[in-house]
Amino acid sequence: MISDITIENFKSVLNVSLPLGRFNLLIGANGCGKSNILEGIALGAAASSDKLDYEYFANRGIRVVEPRFMLPAFEDTVANSIQIGVKDKEGYPTVFDIRYDNNAKPARWVNDNEFDMEEDAQSDDIDQTNNKENKDDILKFVVRGNKLFAIPTNADLNTFLIYSLEESKLRRADDSNRTYPMGRHGEGLFAYLKDLSQRPEGVDFFNEIKENLKVLDWFDDMQVPSGQLSMEFNLKLKDSYLAETINTFDQRSTNEGFLYLLFYLTLVISDETPKFFAIENIDTAFNPKLCREVTRRLIELARKHDKQIIATTHNAAVLDGMNIFEDDVRLHVVRRTIDGYTKTNRVVLKDEMSMPLSEAWVKGYIGGLPDNF
Q: Residue 98: which of 221, 187, 7, 14 has the closest Cα?
């Protein structure tokens, strides 16, 4: 698990250090830089995986813009590279120094932390890196031309991406244009569920999914299409309120809240989804009370299935699903300084509050609200 992330010189973020727990929530006004923080982490993941080409940026959730817009554009601020630092739970640091190389053909983003094994094999950096007990956890070896390069990497960071669900993608029954096992916008969910249903471990997986779907009072049962050769990906859902004459219906008829919840449960429970990921606007499609319960359940499931989550929200009810007295549950307020820089601070409570966290946020006691009106 990752314990700390630092981001320097990325968009509105000049220097931010984010101490992470198991479940991390970012709150703040629109445009304060929450998404920039998530994209900075995703950029570090791209560097860690040696995939800094534009085609990989969008797949991780990084908005593709001109190189000059990836760097800070404040007055009296000059930066030529972006630094993303990562510490694992053992405190071991990995730093990625990322810059746009106009001299490359074609011009592209590069990670200056790559080591030429032929020229730098005896360097202090390589020696220090090799001192770690399992160097495969922090080095990726690639051949370019006739040279061998070592790339600093982080196993937990490698697969990080930002999920931003879209209802239209969630309702689609085919699995086209998805990354495995599910796409960032929800595509491929039903094809993946069908795949899981064919496996022996699918029984326990679906039992856990269904148990948590019962947070929706109408939910009675869910079945996935049988037959490995069938191209049928529609779910069969049963509503406890409906008459027996309408036995089941599929995802085209259900409400969007069900689809969002099903995706998040699959994301956290599956062993094949990323260990570390972000969810933008985790409150989308949920009733305020449901926001609270879904947040609480996702935290418990993240602990059970060893997942690490960063989420953003604009719905105060999400905060009430968090117990921030538990060290692995962390609330971060994101804001812009008077100069426009993105900054964060972790909300830490010493004593029990006399009001819910949601009320404290709305009343302005913990920050994270616009202050220009």
A: 7
pTM equals: 0.91
**Does 143 have pLDDT greater than 80?**
no
Q: Is 2:154 a contact under the CB 8 Å cutoff? A: yes
18, β-bridge pairs: 5
Alpha carbon distance 18, 37 (integer Å)? 9
**Radius of gyration, alpha carbons of the chain:** 22
Contact predicate 168/151, CB 8 Å: no
Instruction: Indicate the DSSP class of residue 126.
Output: H
Nearest to 96 by CA among 160, 39, 153: 153
Q: Which helix H or strand E contains 262, and what residues bound it?
A: helix 256-269
Collapsed DSSP state (helix, strand, coil) of residue 270: coil
Alpha-carbon distance of 261 to 259, in angstroms, equals: 5
Phi, psi of 84 (to 5 degrees): -120, 120
Sheet hosting strand 81-88, strand order edge to edge: 13-19, 2-10, 81-88, 93-101, 108-111
Tokens in use for 182?
């599910």
Tokens representing residue 107 in the block = 């011009």
Residue type for 56, please? Answer: Y
Q: What count of other Cβ atoms lies within 10 Å of the Cβ of residue 286?
A: 22
Q: How far apart are CA 249 and CA 124, in angstroms?
A: 63
Q: pLDDT tens across 214-245, in order? A: 999 999 999 987 765 566 678 889 999 987 77
Quick one: tokens of 27? 């709150």
* pLDDT tens column, 244-293: 777 788 888 899 999 999 999 999 999 999 999 999 999 999 999 999 99
Task: Indicate the pLDDT class of residue 127, thresholds 50, 70 and 90.
Answer: very low
pLDDT at res. 178 = 66
Residue 47 host element (H or E): helix 34-48
Residues with Cβ within 8 Å of residue 196, at least 6 apart in sequence = 202, 205, 206, 270
Mark 132-157 as b/e (b = at least 16 C-beta within 10 Å): eeeeeebbbeeeeeeeebbbbbbebb
Share of the chain above pLDDT 90, in %: 67
